[in-house]
Amino acid sequence: MAGMYIHIPFCKKACHYCNFHFSTSRQQMPEMVNAILEEAALQQSYLSEKVETLYFGGGTPSLLTTYEVRNTINRLRELFVVNGNAEITLEANPDDITEEQLVGWREAGINRLSIGIQSFFEEDLQWMNRAHTAPQALQCIELAQKHGFTNITIDLIYGSPSLTDEKWKQNVETALSLAIPHISCYALTVEPKTALAKMIATQQSADVDADKQARQFSLLTQWMAAAGFEHYEISNFAKPGFRSRHNSSYWQGKSYLGLGPSAHSFNGNSRQWNIANNALYLKILEAGIIPFEMEYLTDTQKLNEYVMTGLRTLEGISLKKMAAEWGDEKVTRITNAASKHIDQGHLMWTDDVLQLTATGKFLADGIAADLFEG
Ligand code: SF4
Predict the structure, then answer these.
(1) How far is C-alpha 197 from the geometric centre of its chain's CA atoms?
(2) Cβ-based neighbours of 210, under 8 Å, separated by 6 or more
(3) Which of 79, 157, 203, 266 has its CA 20 to 30 Å from the CA of residue 121?
(4) Does residue 51 line the site of ligand 1, with CB under 6 A?
């Protein structure tokens, strides 16, 4: 089983907090779609497994025409062995979701929508510089459901300076009232060189408050559990049967091919990443060369990745698996490093599996770093 990620590096507006690779100049979009398909042809032998998931991310893939989406899927099906029941996700922003787009996406084979809602409050959306309005955030979900999309996920952001606990509760309640089976929630992070980082540095915005973020995360986990959602990864909640197959394959260490500027690929032994520059990506591909850099993963890097992703997921990290792949010595070292966090109530054992506790979940990255092999 393998996955495929297609990066569409264009957006209408730059959200203040975003550090993904995208351009707000959309002139090169048609050229980019062709280049991505050329890259796919050059990478035809990268994956030896059947493709189980396709994921259009970005950027904003909902800016593509429905013809471009359909043509891309058809071409990828020609070039690769794509399972008949593959999960095919498209990230969409609320302001791009129209009846015409929805019909076209379904005809093209999109069977899962990931909608960037972030908040149902107008003042939050404006503060983030999102392109959509609060009424659009609500209407787009209802419209997608009316057009037969049942597998929908939405993104929400918590811990922003303007988000009180009461507003956070209302955002989650609104999401739950819409009968969607998957919700991803992210703590607002201040990435270097973003507009948000500048706003905070020049005191145009308050800084993020780590205690508030931890509290809103804790409230979230309680609300989602009460609503019957499985907390299967730190930022992801799903009703039974609705986990993201694509993202789960990343966390299970499966192979994936990333297409487009800045996209990453992984084949079990090496990782590679395309140049994060639209003009250079187009120019170099024109010469029939894929502009990427690559690194081979050492055993230690593979172990650390397993620890990091394992801890972030409900599955935890299995000592049996670690002993079989990396040897007993590593298991002993990790078990010793874990004991402090177990005493503090942030990690726990379930048979041979080490997992984060409810309080440990917000501290996942720091705890994983403590367990890393140096
Ligand atoms: S729409 Fe998404 S990718 Fe584009 S700027 Fe906003 S958060 Fe970033």
Answers:
(1) 22
(2) none
(3) 203
(4) no
